[in-house]
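Hi team,

As requested, here is the filled-out complex form for the magnesium ion run. I kept the field names the same as last time so the parser does not choke. Let me know if anything looks off before we queue the next batch.

— J.
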Amino acid sequence: MSEQAPESTLPYPPIHRDKKFVVLSDWDGTITTYDSNDYMTDHLGYGKEKRRQGNLEILGGKVTFRDAFREMLESVTKNGHTFEECKQILHDNIKLDEGFKSFYTWCKSVDIPVIIVSSGMAPLIRAVLSNLLGEEAANDIEIISNDVTVQPDGKWEIKFRHPTSGYGHDKSQAILPYRDLPNPPTLFFFGDGVSDISAAKYADLLFVKSKAGGDNDLAAYCKREGLTHLIFEDFGKALPVVQSIVEGKKTIRDVTSS
Ligand SMILES: [Mg+2]
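And here is what came back:
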């Protein structure tokens, strides 16, 4: 199988070359409690039932993430919702994982970069982040995501980072450069859904967020593919695990083999 990297239409932030640990995390449904794109599709687009059907089709390999995700977002624009309106609705409704702020602050204090790797659209992520984490952190935190094209009349469509990849945004491309460094850092990846499938197998330690209602697509994928992962409820619960590894008290094997 060809492992050729898809061409990126959007820039990447520079690699952190001298770190011992790097945290990469999905945004929607992982750092936030409700996936903002799901929120838009469920409330402003064609609804949850059809959206879940799409997620399961992605998981089953019947359709690419890119095409199913584009269709979900199109159901929002077809209902006449402008980008600004969507931004405001998400700003007002999306909440942060309750442990994330302390997790992020701790990582900053011990010089561990935290990078958001998302299939969402950058302006929406920043709008929600500045509301929940403050302007400074929102500007400071690195985001590798998709983007959006907004027309003068307010109509909008997602601009994929990797339009030639079935993932739309192939998240492995945010991780692999770290693995290629002469002294690669230990990589922690946090995710929750089908958008994280492209990244799942490249982390040193994969955290998968637990989901109420059994809609845990990433956990289902990991189980099917036999990928070692750790289920976490929120970042407050993940923090001591990360700390124990960073402080050398435990190894990744210790925390995953229980
Ligand atoms: Mg997600």
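Two things worth flagging: The domain at 21-33+97-151+159-256 is CATH 3.40.50.1000 (Rossmann fold). The mean pLDDT is 95.

Thanks,
J.
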